[in-house]
Design brief:
The chain is built from five helices and three strands, in the order ααβααββα.
Length: about 110
């Protein structure tokens, strides 16, 4: 049975989020990415595999090296999905802040 990984489970992991931040500005090899973490290289490779499987990262081959880079289209899809929720929570926090400021002035 071939299970497809969920993009939100992938970005729930702090190491994978850190990897996404690393490659957001430039493509990097697995070794260059792994050098930024205090974990074994196979562990970082597993994280890269998950991010690639979820299409958050893309790979390009350059000779014997594989470079990883952000898949901007997929990241935009995720951001577009999250945006209505962000707006909803911003509105709720704004209302809470207004209530709290009225409460402070009554004291």
């Amino acid at each position: 049975m071939n299970l497809r990984r969920d993009v939100f489970q992938a970005i729930a992991d702090p190491t994978r989020r850190a990897i996404l931040l690393l490659v957001a500005t430039q493509s990097m090899t697995a070794g260059a990415i792994a050098a930024n973490f205090d974990t074994a290289r196979p562990t970082v490779s597993k994280h890269l595999s998950i991010l690639t499987e979820c299409e958050l990262l893309q790979q390009t081959q350059s000779g014997r090296e594989v470079h990883y880079h952000i898949n901007a289209k997929k990241m935009k899809e995720v951001a577009d999905f999250i945006e209505p929720f962000r707006k909803m929570w911003d509105d709720r926090f704004d209302k809470l802040e207004a209530i709290m400021s009225k409460y402070k002035t009554k004291k």
